[in-house]
């Protein structure tokens, strides 16, 4: 069996420092050669004093010799040309060598921050995300590259910390119902006098805890699926209406709003969009469920939908406890509940994270404003249906041909 190496064999190439040095040397020596050639041409054309003398004119030299003027001129020109070429070539070699050495040193100094960037990238790991180049040289392109690399590391570090916090919080949220179930089962089984009523109570607690764990897992899967589509084409894009999702969500929480005596006001004008109807319905459902969950007895909820030529709007507001303005951006992070993390509040803290992910997947945006006196108003903006193309596809299966 013959094995072929599919990896491309790249020819060795000189380094950038060497290429810059060679380029500088070639340009310097070439310019010097042009100057020497130009000087030789000027000297050759300028040394013709005997051309203005009569033929046969003699010239008496300082040593007393008398020679023909034209012969003396030819000797003088040969000597001047030889001296010019020899000394010019020597000077050219000296200047070229000095230029090449200087260019090599200057290029190395200029490329030193690039080596720092390369070394930092090679050392980069989960434990070294706090390292930065912190270039303090001249304000040039290298400084811009170093600053860009540092900014990229800042973003990567923030995302990495967010992911670690997400995993830790998810593990805690999943551990809580599992711990409740195990504790309840162990306590009941350890009681020799447990009767049917105790077993039923245990079953009720285990069922409620499993429902909570199942809801959390569903939310995590929905969040992961939605974030995977952010910045890319949605797997499904069909005409939808934000008002339809609001109506469905309001119907699903009607019993809870009646129990809390909440005043629900809706102004549902058509808000046509193009996207995944399931995700859009979950978006409206999460906002309205949060408006109910974090409200108070006898509070208010208001929902409005409308659209213009370019955007569709969904606004959900509610009364409730006060939210600090500084805590509002953090509400869209996973497992954050009104500025509190895992404090025993109802819900998993993934509602607004899913809302943000759905908006990102549909090319929209979501903002929230803390209201005076308590409560929150969330505004969702999505591209209108008129500005969003449908995602269509077709597959044709050629008919089979019988032999």
UniProtKB/TrEMBL annotation:
Question: Domain Histidine kinase: where?
Answer: 169-386
Q: Which PROSITE patterns does the record cross-reference, listed alphabetically?
A: HAMP (PS50885), HIS_KIN (PS50109)
Report the residue ranges that make up the HAMP domain in this protein: 108-161
What keywords is this UniProt entry annotated with?
Answer: Kinase, Membrane, Phosphoprotein, Transferase, Transmembrane, Transmembrane helix, Two-component regulatory system
Q: Pfam families from the xrefs? A: HAMP, HATPase_c, HisKA
Q: What is its EC number?
A: 2.7.13.3
Q: Name one GO cellular component term.
A: plasma membrane
Protein localization: Cell membrane
Q: What is this enzyme's catalytic activity, as reactions? A: ATP + protein L-histidine = ADP + protein N-phospho-L-histidine
Question: Which stretches are transmembrane?
Answer: 21-43, 84-107
The Swiss-Prot or TrEMBL record annotates one GO molecular function as: phosphorelay sensor kinase activity
This one is known as: histidine kinase
Q: Which organism is it from?
A: Planosporangium flavigriseum
